[in-house]
Write a structure and sequence with these properties.
It comes from Pedobacter cryotolerans. Keywords: Signal. This is Copper amine oxidase-like N-terminal domain-containing protein. Among the domains are: about 185-290, no CATH class; about 310-390, no CATH class. The protein is about 5% helix and about 45% strand. It is mainly β. The protein is built from one helix and 32 strands. The two termini are about 60 Å apart. The strands form nine sheets. The protein has a five-stranded antiparallel sheet with strand order 22-21-20-17-23, with helices on one face. It has one helix spanning about 250-260, and strands at about 10-15, 25-30, 30-35, 40-45, 50-55, 60, 70-75, 80, 85-90, 95-100, 105-110, 115-120, 125-130, 130-140, 160-170, 175-180, 185-190, 205, 210, 220-225, 230-235, 240-245, 265, 275-280, 310-315, 320-325, 335-340, 345, 355-360, 365-370, 375, 385-390.
């Protein structure tokens, strides 16, 4: 008789897929440029940063200077120039948006779709908090006339200060104004779940780690918006519950006040619901498993040998050189290139790039083909990095 055994596994998954593309970024001594897969230099390495946008087959070349930043398409080779690009400035419904400036106007550009959201104000410092986004902008005080002196002459108007104002926006593509001004600090609060009595059932926790999963943005139950000694308590729908004054701003005092007012147990940390499942029940012994009965012989299960999967590796040789190679089969290894002892090679097994470090210089990076090992780097830079192709 066959015996079935149920096993609950704890595992982590990381599924990296690299779209077929014709162009790749590379960096030499900390400066970034563009090459095609044939090693032809499309743009010299002069930019300060590269940011990958895999969902759109793009990457940004950013310099944060008077020179325009670039959005480059890895498949078509087309590029668009903007005054500035700040990647992942805000998460709208867990979708990252870049802050882009073009012809003096700012807009948010989705890093997953072609959605663009024009901004009516010069917003900055976005913070996603549940169903809302807290942002700020700078604006001058209202114009106030200087009046007249004792001789009736007009005095110059008072100098208008530039102040930072905080606002609450809807966390969706409308960015609808929910609350304007009146606070410079905020404290989200979450209701603690009621404690459950132990029912004696053994439970097993299963955790699946997916590196593609986006960061969670839990919905608060209440939030306190504060400015100086003035505080306002709102519920999850941003409806005012109570406005109050509490001197000597202190997070613990605010927390205690809210708990007493609402008469519920609160936390400043959201409750993450654990994924609990009941463990399989122990099977009742069959007649053949009971004492005094000889069990039936178990069938032998043939274990098949897993197929060999090619992999890349880096290995330091006795002479100090380092080789980068592809293990094609259990017996055959193909060298891709070799570096000098003065070159430090850092290879990331899960990625399709490696970093090169020369003492006294900034890091360099190049991508390579995950099937053949061919590196995407203009040949003019190989010698300077101490790399010799095999």
């Amino acid at each position: 008789m066959k015996k079935t055994i149920f096993t609950l596994l704890l595992f982590a998954t990381a599924n990296f897929t690299f779209a077929q593309q014709k162009y790749y970024p590379f960096s030499i001594n900390g400066k970034h440029g563009i090459t095609d897969t044939l090693g032809n230099e499309v743009m010299k390495p002069t930019y300060a940063f590269t940011t990958l946008v895999p969902a759109k087959n793009q990457f940004y070349l950013q310099d944060f200077s008077e020179r325009p930043d670039i959005i480059f398409n890895t498949k078509t080779g087309t590029k668009a120039l903007y005054e500035s690009i700040y990647n992942n400035e805000v998460q709208i419904k867990n979708v990252p948006y870049a802050m882009v400036t073009a012809k003096g106007k700012k807009f948010l550009l989705s890093e997953e779709t072609d959605k663009a959201i024009p901004l009516t104000r010069d917003y900055g410092d976005f913070y996603a908090v549940g169903n809302y986004i807290i942002a700020n902008y700078h604006a001058q005080d209202t114009y106030v006339s200087g009046g007249k002196d004792k001789n009736g002459k007009f005095l110059p108007p008072k100098i208008r200060e530039m102040k930072k104002h905080h606002v609450v926006l809807a966390n969706d593509e409308s960015l609808k104004m929910v609350l304007d001004k009146g606070f410079d600090k905020y404290l989200p609060l979450y209701i603690l779940p009621a404690e459950k009595k132990d029912d004696g059932i053994v439970k097993m926790k299963t955790i699946t780690i997916d590196l593609r999963k986006k960061k969670s943005n839990p919905i608060f139950d209440y939030i306190i918006l504060s400015q100086g000694n003035n505080h306002r308590l709102f519920n999850a729908k941003m409806v005012l519950v109570k406005a109050f004054v509490l001197a000597k701003l202190d997070e613990d005092k605010l927390f205690d006040y809210a708990e007493k007012l609402l008469n519920v147990k609160l936390s400043t940390m959201p409750n993450v619901e654990n994924s609990f499942v009941s463990a399989p029940k122990m099977a009742e012994p069959t007649y053949s498993q009971q004492k005094g009965v000889n069990p039936e012989p178990q069938e032998e299960i043939a274990v098949e040998k897993e197929p060999f999967i090619p992999f890349f590796y880096a290995k330091k040789l006795e002479n100090g050189n380092t080789i980068f190679a592809l293990q094609e089969t259990e017996e055959i290894s193909k060298r891709i290139f070799e570096t000098k002892p003065t070159t430090k090679l850092t290879f990331y097994k899960a990625d399709n790039y490696f970093d090169v470090k020369i003492e006294g210089k900034e890091d360099s990076r190049t991508y390579f083909n995950r099937k053949t090992g061919e590196i995407y780097l203009p040949k003019a830079y190989l010698a300077g990095l101490g790399i010799t192709l095999n």
